[in-house]
Amino acid sequence: MRFLMTSMAADDQPDEQLYAEMAKFIEEMTAKGVLLATGGLAPEGVVLTSVGDELTVTDGPFAESREAVGGFALVEVGSKAEAIELGRRFRRIVGDGKSVIQQVYGP
Amino acid sequence: MNDDVRATVDAVWRLESARIVAALMRLLHDVGLAEEIAQDALLAALEQWPDNGIPDNPGAWLTTIAKRRAVDHIRRARRFEELAPRLAVDALEEQPDDVLRLMFIACHPALAPRTRAALTLRMVAGLSPAEIARAFLTTEPVIQQSIAAAKSTLAEVHARFELPPPDELAGRLSSVLEVLYLIFNEGYAATAGDDLLRPELTREALRLARVLAELAPHEAEAHGLVALMEIQASRSAARTGPDGAPVRLHEQNRGLWDQLLIRRGFTAMLRARELGGTPGAYVLQAAIAVCHAQARTAEDTDWAQIATLYELLERLLPTPVVRLNRAVAVSFARDPAEALELVEPLLADPALRDFHLLPSVRADLLLRLGRIAEARLEFGRAADLAANAAERAFLMKKAGEAGPGEPTLGEVAEAFLARDDLGAATLRSYRQTMVRLRRSLGDRLPLGELTADRVARAFAVAWGDAAPATWNRHVAAARTFAAWIGRSEAASGLSRKDTTRAEKAAREVVWHSESVPLRERTLWTLIEESGAPIQAVLSLGVEDLDLADRRARAGRRWVTWRSGTARLLPQLLAGRTRGPVFLADRRPVPSRPLAEADRCPETGRRRLSYERAEYLCKRITGHTLRRLKDPPNGQH
Q1: What is the pTM of this model?
Q2: Confidence check: pLDDT of B133 > 80
Q3: Is A78 close to B14, i.e. CB distance below 8 A?
Q4: ipTM of this predicted complex?
């Protein structure tokens, strides 16, 4: 089963220790064979909205940055509980904030 | 119990059990005990977490409890005094490659491949016996029994929790890779209707292979296996149609291939290539998979490259299936006639006699060469052999209508078996012969085509390896059938076999042939004649031998032998008076300390290891050392 975990961008800049801990965590999860892909997202983005035939393209950045996704991780595990356990470890490293875990349908 | 807690415990267990069991192995050096204590820790979590809440770091919690129990156990067993120094130095400190050591133990060559697979799933992947049983389509007691037997075998051969020495590493590693690929295929072969746990095996094997490649980053074959699995797994959504029927590679919708896995496969392949060296079997198979993955459409496939890769692969892995695949590649890269020539010898291979892809590939080639009638016959035979209904329907469609008019083998055989002038036992025996003949030759074979040549070839494939008595029974049946249909000449290519001489000759060949090295001949003869445990035989020192009385002391028991060993031993010793009887081929690596008794004082060579002896025995005779001790059917 695949799960996508998206995490909201944090307000404060990450420090060096956080970087080091994250790098170690990512390395460990990759070595365990569960982390398929991960990355951070740029705060600015483009929004496409379609209504009927009309398509609107809006350039960012956006005001509600608190709800903007700052990073993602795609994991492959045996159960939802395993995905949650991985998320738990991740949150313990990054501190206050919010992540969302969703199952990815398909393979 | 709270389901959430249960699910969390299971999740933590899946992620951490390999590390925990490995840490326990480091402390206890006993597979059975390590497993038992790991289970204790798991139980403790199931008991305590619902009340006390899930700890902050569940993995660390489990590890701590497990280690504490292991130390308690050692104290209780009063072995603490003896083990204390080791405990203090390194045993509590986990090493990064502990999980790798665990894989090597679980995939020990003294165990059969399927047992290794079960043990690996148990100890490294953390699956329960019930889960393993479901995945392998068997029952829990069967798995439990095989795991228990594996543990005692590991104890008997003194399997150590350590990385194999450099000269054994490649062999041991390939044993691990073989097991992971076996687990992968067990899952990959499962179909949509099967229990979901079977496809889960694919993911589990892939995960273990990724772990292995990280732990052994300098082994190209480990990366090759990862690449092969990633790319094969990338096709899982495309390989069955909406009705569950298998879709062949060149007909798959490439848009359904998982690009993420393909790219991961490419990355693993690059890592394998960067390591250089002669490509091994997994790297070659991965390279073939890469070729397919790179082709945007089936027509774009670089068949010339694939044919070349199969040619290299065939040298390493000369199996009939590899040869068949090579023929297919050649037919696209060059021409069908050349491919047909490669396929013909496979018709004589007993391993492929029930394999529907052989006639199916042959039929395709014949069709492309315009030999329509033969192609029809082969498609029909392929359809008869196919186990899958969708596949059979597809082949039947291709076979079209059977040739009109002339009676076929199938019809005449039915009439023959419907005779009422024969006893039930005779009919049953005839039926066995006819079933096999019809499968080999095809029910649609026109009777006029039932030539002596065809019958003789079918017999050689079907019963060439059988005992002479079996062979003779089938020959008698075929002769009766041929006479009954008025075509006695059809059985004229068959002759009876002498029932006693052939069997003995087959055994003697392997054993006493001068081409088998003296050390192996001596070791095998000694094992066979003494019936002693293999480890006991390997542990013998020259000074233990009593050549005159044909016996030697091994620990508390005597190992005795007969004339065969007595003849060979003096040649093997060649005047040596001390050191191990059976020596390794090479000198040990200087950095590895070695017990004095395990080294020959004259040549400096070390004692022959069980792993190496087993490997040589399998390579030359095709079976294990234990088989020598207890041959099937009690042949002595």
Answers
A1: 0.65
A2: yes
A3: yes
A4: 0.74
